[in-house]
Task: inverse folding
């Protein structure tokens, strides 16, 4: 039996305020970091990504500690984190009143959540929480990649994070032989693109790793791109790995979901289980599916997905006002 809704709202707020809020994490150093971030870190007029990054953090922390306890999966090597679209490590949104809401992105979550984050939240009681053995980051934007490296060094001054870190540019140039040098027995891969940047040939390489994957599929962005791609579909051909998506060029109703199903079916056809959470922006055209792409080799349910599923149930229907009230008001139940 799951925990009550009010408890979920408290835990969501604790993830943000106690772990994922860079302003609170850095304290008096934050104004300097915020100034340095200008022109590098995008500022958007909504705060929905806080939900996305919280869900990712919930999963990353649970996953790292669960997989490290399964000796048959890690006895021959390290457990490693790969961020395919790391960004600058920080996202900044603005609410309807103009207040900034900074949050750590995936380029930081993989470093702090498994050990520091779970210890801060007090969710691992039987043993000390464990971080990943190594972390690899891809970011094509040079300014963001350099900012991320500086951010990691600042974080390292405060908390213990994996010391073995490597930074690369375009994930579409991924070299499996290069990754093999890290000696990783298992990978957690995070992919959070703006749209169709990740080529299917790249995705096939990632799927060939001994890996589980978090993929943020930007449904609304891809739907908006469809009319242009129907005229010149090179990017979509690369993204989907074939031209089957062209059968949707004459559709209008529900075409975004149909495109998503094509992509999800392509992954499931390669022997993976896919769970997903869907979040919609009610006041603007913004919608994503956060997918967990997991190998089917585990017997029964994937135990580390349970917190993700639990949180998912309570956030999928939040509109922006309810989201704002969740982080500023008494709890989630009142706004459901």
Result:
């Amino acid at each position: 039996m799951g925990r009550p809704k009010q408890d979920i709202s408290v835990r969501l707020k604790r993830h943000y305020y106690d772990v994922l809020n860079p302003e609170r994490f850095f304290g008096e150093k934050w104004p300097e970091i915020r100034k340095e971030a200008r022109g590098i870190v995008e500022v958007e007029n909504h705060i929905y990504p806080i939900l996305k990054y919280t869900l990712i953090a919930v999963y990353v922390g649970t996953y790292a500690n669960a997989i490290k306890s399964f000796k048959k999966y890690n006895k021959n090597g390290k457990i490693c984190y790969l961020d395919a679209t790391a960004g600058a490590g920080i996202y900044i949104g603005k609410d309807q009143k103009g207040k900034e809401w900074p949050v750590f992105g995936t380029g930081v979550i993989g470093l702090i959540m498994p050990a520091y984050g779970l210890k801060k939240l007090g969710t691992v009681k039987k043993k000390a929480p464990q971080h990943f053995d190594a972390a690899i980051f891809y970011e094509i934007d040079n300014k963001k990649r350099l900012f991320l490296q500086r951010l990691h060094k600042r974080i390292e001054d405060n908390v213990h994070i994996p010391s073995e870190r490597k930074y690369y540019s375009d994930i579409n140039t991924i070299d499996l032989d290069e990754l093999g040098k890290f000696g990783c027995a298992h990978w957690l891969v995070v992919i959070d693109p703006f749209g169709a940047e990740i080529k299917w040939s790249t995705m096939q390489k990632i799927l060939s790793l001994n890996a589980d994957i978090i993929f943020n599929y930007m449904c609304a962005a891809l739907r908006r791109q469809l009319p242009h791609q129907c005229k010149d579909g090179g990017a979509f051909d690369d993204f989907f790995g074939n031209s089957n998506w062209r059968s949707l060029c004459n559709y209008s109703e529900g075409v975004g979901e149909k495109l998503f199903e094509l992509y999800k079916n392509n992954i499931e056809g390669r022997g993976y289980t896919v769970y997903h959470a869907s979040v919609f922006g009610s006041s603007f055209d913004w919608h994503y599916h956060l997918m967990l792409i997991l190998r089917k080799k585990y017997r029964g349910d994937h135990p580390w997905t349970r917190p993700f599923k639990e949180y998912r149930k309570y956030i999928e229907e939040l509109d922006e006002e309810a989201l704002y009230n969740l982080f500023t008001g008494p709890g989630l139940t009142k706004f459901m």
Q: What stands out?
A: The first helix runs from residue 5 to 20.
